[in-house]
Amino acid sequence: MKRDDSFKRGKNNIEMILLNILCDDDYYGYQLSQLVNEYSNNMISIPEGSLYPALYRLQENGFISAEKKLVGKRLERIYYHIEPAGKEYLETLISDYNHLNQAIQNILSHKIIQ
Amino acid sequence: MNKEISEFLHMVKISFPIFRKSEKRFFSDFRNSVNDYVENNPKCTKDDLENHFGSPKDIVITYYNNMDSDVYFTLMKKTRYIRNIFISVLVTLTLLVVIATGFFISAKLEYDKYSIDHLETTITEDGVSTNITETIIEEVEE
């Protein structure tokens, strides 16, 4: 495994989490970070410095789209929507995650046996 | 937006070492997140904001940690290129100033070698014109 793969996996996990949440509905940035907290029972928190770069990457790759919506009189919010390509990408990410998880479990099991 | 929130956002903004289009985009979205947080927590203080979002420095560090490697390396190369150009210009200007100063001092020293021993003023009888003659008599002995 190349060294940078493990670094990218961290970013992939964030993208996986965000895409999964966006499968339910369209959300804006702050809402996404709140939902991650809520669904993980406050175990996982995605800081804005990680959240928005991940959303930008997903948008650039065509996995999600962004739409500005007027809230109230002046406030504009950017809502993110998952695209069909994003759903396919999500399946790939989940598959990779499960494989990695299994690999780690195998390593941990091996150590326990010894 | 109260003063503490404005101050917090200002600290985040100035924590960026550079502020290109991508940093502006992130800051705009980050500001919206702060506004949403404040909407849900109207009495929040600057400390509350830092506890929730992180310190301004941490926010910026996290942003750059999540930047694509290619973009990051390109940015670092550009930064190094600009820095090298700046240093070259600075060194060149310094050398020019030193050389110019050297010429000036040399000319001044040369000038100071001579002194005006006396002045002769000749006034013609018709009073129309005045001739003034400066006579440099001798070089000052060192």
Topology:
The complex is a heterodimer of chains A (114) and B (142).
Chain A lengths: L2 H20 L4 E2 H11 L8 H13 L3 E8 L3 E8 L1 H30 L1
Antiparallel strand pairs in A: 1-3, 2-3
Helix pairs in contact in A: 1-3, 1-4
Chain B lengths: L2 H13 L5 H20 L5 H8 L2 H10 L3 H44 L1 E2 L2 E6 L6 E6 L2 E2 L3
Helix pairs in contact in B: 1-4
Could you explain how this protein is built, in words?
- The complex is a heterodimer of chains A (114) and B (142).
- Chain A has 114 residues and is of the alpha+beta class.
- In chain A, 65% of the residues lie in helices and 16% in strands.
- Chain A has 4 helices and 3 strands.
- Chain A has helices spanning 3-22, 29-39, 48-60, 84-113, and strands spanning 27-28, 64-71, 75-82.
- Chain A has a 3-stranded antiparallel sheet with strand order 1-3-2.
- In chain A, a hairpin with a 3-residue loop joins strand 2 and strand 3 (75-82).
- In chain A, helix 1 (3-22) packs across helix 3 (48-60) and helix 1 (3-22) crosses helix 4 (84-113).
- The longest helix of chain A is centred in the last third of the chain and has 30 residues, at 84-113.
- The mean pLDDT of chain A is 89.
- With 142 residues, chain B is mainly alpha-helical.
- Chain B has 5 helices and 4 strands; from the N terminus they run H-H-H-H-H-E-E-E-E.
- In chain B, the strands form 2 sheets. A two-stranded antiparallel sheet of chain B has the order 1-4. A two-stranded antiparallel ribbon of chain B has the order 2-3.
- In chain B, strand 2 and strand 3 form a beta hairpin.
- Chain B is elongated and about 100 Å long.
- Chains A and B meet through helix 2, helix 3 and strand 3 of A and helix 2 and helix 4 of B.
